[in-house]
Amino acid sequence: MTILEICGWLEATPLGTTITESEWLFPTIETVHVLALTLVFGSIAFLDLRLLGLGNRNRGVVSLTSETLPFTWVGFVIAAITGALLFVSAATKYYANMPFRIKLVLLALAGVNMIVFHLLGYRSVAGWDHARQTPRAAKIAAVLSLLLWSGVLIAGRMIGFVEASHGFN
Amino acid sequence: MVFMESISSWLEHTSLSHAVSVNTWAVPALQTVHIAAVAIVFSAAVMLDFRLAGVTGRHEPLRSNALPFYPRIKWALLVLIATGIFQIIGEPARELQNWIFWTKMGLIVVACLLTAATRPQLAEMTLAEHTSGGRARIRLLGVVSLVMWVAVITCGRWIAYAGGPAA
Questions:
Q1: Residue B158 and residue A34: Cβ atoms within 8 Å?
Q2: How much helix, strand and coil, in percent to the nearest 5, is found in chain B?
Q3: First to last CA, chain B
Q4: How far is B125 from chain A (nearest CA, A)?
Q5: Nearest residue of A to residue B67 by CA position?
Q6: Chain A contacts of B158, Cβ < 8 Å?
Q7: ipTM higher than the 0.85 cut
């Protein structure tokens, strides 16, 4: 089975057809997707800005991380579930959509950046938790994170414009 | 809505509106910046309101670590107003002749007033140290202002799907 065939099968499932045939399901799922992704982007941006020494400078990195991370994860899980539902409703169209593909690649890179920073840069956090100046590794990770997540946002918004004539908004 | 029709048709014929609508990248670019700013306002509001509602940060005074949320909301709101105005100029009928857009505008005013009202509540006390009446008021304010921001964003997304003049 090719990926395209799997996509065709997905959108023909009762779940896929129910979302496509409903007038309100797609916009409703998309609204929840937007609420969740704004929480992901905003909570990550707060932490990245702290790592760059641009905001919350009086606050410890560990304390800020423990406040923002639960929001990031809850937002991400909800965004992933609603994103999967939106995908199922028009899987073949999304599969062929270039901004959608770019978005997935950028998401994966953002994940890799987070894992690398967590394994390498964050281990020494006890030494610079309350310092205004963070190590270079933390700053690089923060800049990459802001760039990659902005890219996810841009590509995500472009999905609807590339295929605008096909009924996306 | 006749008034709004004439305003939007006047706006449509301005050169600025023309400039926004002929550049195919302008509207998605404005929307993307708009969403990034929504992310800042909404994340700050969620984190603030969860504290006020007593879901997070229960063991620290309400005031500590909460004040930086306000300037973020303020600056991001200015970005939202600017990108919002240019979206209206680019596609006036889509917004000005849509009742969901006007509902959103009303809800934004309410959400801003409620969020501003939370600031004087932030004392150097934990939620538990307040009187039960004070605690109930702070929690209610947190929950209601969060619901308002969710409603604002919900209306924002639905402008694309509904609420326009019947075709």
A1: no
A2: 75, 0, 25
A3: 15
A4: 18
A5: A56
A6: 27, 31
A7: yes
